[in-house]
Design a protein that fits this description.
The chain is an alpha+beta fold and 673 residues long. The chain folds into 4 domains: 101 residues, no CATH class; 200 residues, Clc chloride channel (Orthogonal Bundle), CATH 1.10.3080.10; 207 residues, Clc chloride channel; 125 residues, Roll (CBS-domain). It has 26 helices and 12 strands. Strand 3 and strand 4 form a beta hairpin. Helix 3 crosses helix 4, helix 5 runs antiparallel to helix 14 and helix 7 packs across helix 21. The N terminus is likely disordered.
Length: 673
């Protein structure tokens, strides 16, 4: 007898009933005997089609039934030394691929195990490389547009432009952005770090492609036209979207999808600033808001991969020209504390002012808000052109101590006003690079003031400008490690760590005291009516998939069954019986209740049993996706007022299979701090 592939046929999955359905192609065997059949089935097991050797007797009888005497037609293969013919070898390869994907998803459900962590690290490195290419495209697009405008000067040096051009550029850019955003729905206009955090909290890391495309185009226009925003928001957004899409295409569990979004964010920051470690810490502190090895490992590899790609394709990277990185005397430390406190006050003022302007802008359309931001930037740029664009040139001049105290304060004030207006108006871009400019100029002014009081005894103004950058960023983001690491990587010196830690922590403490621990990103979330729960239990549950805690010992049964059929079910070692009551609801009952009922003396004569009428414990259950995290399961149990969830998986053919059962007790039992 020969082997031929025919249409797939479904069959159940052993003792767990509907816990797993697979498709097995019909085979016609050369010698239909148990030994050959066992070899064939073992090969299929290795390919992932039948997942347990314990089911070989069941599958053996199945293949005996499916054997067909028709002659072979197409490709030849060898099954354990036995010649066979398969109709569609590409279908077999496809099944092998999907089987490998299923095994990978199963391992990622419990990512803390070594196999799942290894796979997640590989995926993180791939995402990092993709993000590096995307961010490189963003940076080069900005340079190309600026190259057309700065024909006689180096791109980005707005101060060399004429007064008319400095005023016209922000206005023209705001008009173009207003025309684009006025035609888009509100959800398509969202972008930047705040959008990433929102999608992580409320959508489990699912980021739409359209918003990333809009961010790419709009940030190129905004930065090239000199708006008071940075490019890092779009870089992180594009990277996070790449990680999210990669995970969605592979249908990964949501706990792993969230990690890939963190990988994309870190890769975007690393490739944009040439700060791989800074990108990692930023993703952990600001986006993931947790520290764990299962997140650190893939995110580190993503940042390394993105930075490597950036170095392979371009030799121009942002850096700070540090002229003074060491404190002259330890007697300056009290004054450094005072400087940190002043910068903390400025940071709190920035956050509070932005919140007030957002409320004032609430009754205006997006076009009006953007035009207002462009007008404010144009007015400020007419007086202080150093506020325009990304700002690395302005920062390096401040680090060199070439600004006077008056110009430093003027640049700080103008940048403060322009950035508050741009952020409140939802101008596409980021606030980190504007924070660099504000910190460098305010710190430089404080350094000059110190030198006026104690001439020859204080450190150079460039040193205080460097401390100002770290203090401002740390206080704005409420992320001390991010501020210190980015400062360390951009400056290339470790001598600033001791005074930097003092200045950064002082600024953060003062800002927390005034703004009740709000970072600028959390404030922006709250202005949208959103918030972020980040307690240790939530962090732990977000890292696990429902597959890690679901009970697979169940059987789907009809509400009315014969005594013989129910006896056969109860002989299996099950924990739950699932009674379907509707498309989106089910009732769970314990097999022990049914067993006691049918064994009762008064019920031994019953031939047909109505399971709903059997006394015992009942749990109302609703469905949840196999890709969901335990945090989603916990929230569903709490919000939907149900006592249990049944875990569903949609196959490639659109069939919905139940994979397991989740109860409140199983969620609580999965928490092992």
């Amino acid at each position: 007898m020969r082997v031929r592939a025919q249409q797939p046929q479904q069959f159940g999955a052993g003792v767990t009933g509907a816990a797993h359905n697979t498709h097995v192609k019909r085979l016609r065997l050369v010698h239909l005997n148990p030994a050959v059949l066992r070899n064939v089935l073992e090969l299929i097991c290795e390919g992932g089609i039948i997942r347990s050797h314990a089911r070989l007797p069941h599958a053996l009888s199945l293949i005996r039934r499916l054997a067909d005497p028709a002659p072979p037609r197409r490709a030849h293969a060898l099954f354990c030394g036995t010649p066979a013919v398969i109709n569609n070898p590409f279908g077999w390869i496809r099944n092998q691929w999907y089987g490998a994907l299923d095994r990978g998803r199963d391992s990622l459900a419990e990512v803390e195990k070594s196999s799942g962590l290894t796979l997640l690290c590989v995926l993180g490195a791939i995402v990092g490389g993709l993000c590096g290419l995307a961010v490189l495209g963003l940076v080069e697009s900005i340079r190309a547009v600026q190259g057309l405008m700065f024909a006689a000067h180096e791109p980005g040096n707005f101060e060399y432009l004429s007064l008319r051009t400095r005023v016209a550029l922000p206005l023209l850019g705001a008009i173009v952005l207003a025309l684009i955003f006025g035609r888009l729905a509100r959800e398509s206009r969202e972008g930047g770090i705040v959008h990433i955090v929102e999608r992580m909290v409320y959508y489990q890391g699912y980021l739409p492609v359209k918003t990333a495309v809009v961010q790419f185009v709009s940030v190129v226009i905004a930065v090239a036209s000199g708006q008071s925003v940075g490019r890092e928001g779009a870089a992180a957004h594009i990277g996070a979207t790449a990680g999210s899409l990669f995970g969605q295409r592979l249908a990964l569990p949501n706990n792993s999808l969230r990690t890939l979004v963190g990988c994309g964010t870190a890769a975007g920051i690393a490739a944009s600033f040439n700060t791989p470690l800074g990108g990692v810490i930023f993703a952990m502190e600001v986006v993931m808001m947790e520290y764990s090895i299962v997140s650190f490992a893939p995110i580190i590899l993503a940042a390394v991969s993105a930075t490597t790609v950036a170095h392979l394709f371009t030799s121009t990277h942002p850096s700070l020209d540090v002229h003074a990185s060491q404190i002259v005397s330890l007697y300056e430390l009290p004054y450094l504390v005072l400087c940190g406190a002043i910068i903390g006050l400025a940071s709190a003022g920035f956050t509070r002012s932005t919140a007030h302007v957002i409320k004032a802008f609430g009754r205006f359309r997006i076009e009006t808000r953007l035009l207002t931001a462009g007008l404010v930037t144009a007015g400020a740029a007419a007086l202080v052109p150093q506020i325009m664009g990304v700002g690395f040139e302005t920062i390096n001049v401040a680090l060199a101590g070439q600004f006077g105290i008056g110009l430093c304060l003027a640049v700080f004030a103008a940048k403060f006003i322009a950035t508050v207006t741009a952020t409140a108006a939802a101008m596409p871009g980021g606030v980190i690079l504007p924070g660099f400019v504000m910190g460098a100029t305010l710190g430089g002014a404080l350094g000059m003031a110190g030198n006026l009081v104690a001439e020859g005894l204080a450190s150079p103004p460039g040193f205080y400008a460097l401390m100002g950058i770290g203090a401002m960023i740390g206080a704005m983001l409420q992320a001390p490690l991010t501020a210190l690491v980015i400062l360390l990587e951009l400056s290339g010196t470790t001598a600033l760590l001791l005074p930097g830690m003092l200045a950064v922590i002082t600024a953060i403490v003062v800002a927390r005291r005034l703004e009740h621990s709000q970072s600028v990103f959390r404030m922006l979330l709250q202005q949208r009516g959103l918030d972020y729960r980040n307690d240790p239990v939530s962090q732990y549950l977000r890292r696990l998939s429902v597959a890690a805690a679901m009970n697979r010992r169940f059987q789907i049964v009809d509400q009315e069954m014969s005594r013989e059929a129910l006896d056969a079910v109860l002989k299996r070692k099950l924990d739950w019986l699932i009674l379907r009551t509707g498309d989106k609801r089910a009732t769970l009952m314990r097999p022990g209740d049914a067993l006691r009922y049918i064994n009762a003396e008064d019920n031994r004569s019953l031939e047909t049993l109505e399971l709903n009428s059997i006394p015992g414990q009942r749990l109302e259950a609703q469905p949840i996706s196999l890709r969901a995290s335990l945090q989603e399961a916990y929230d569903a149990l709490r919000k939907q007022d149900v006592e249990a969830l049944f875990v569903e998986r949609v196959t490639r053919t659109g069939q919905v299979n139940i994979q397991g059962v989740i109860t409140r007790e199983s969620v609580e039992g999965a928490y092992h701090p």
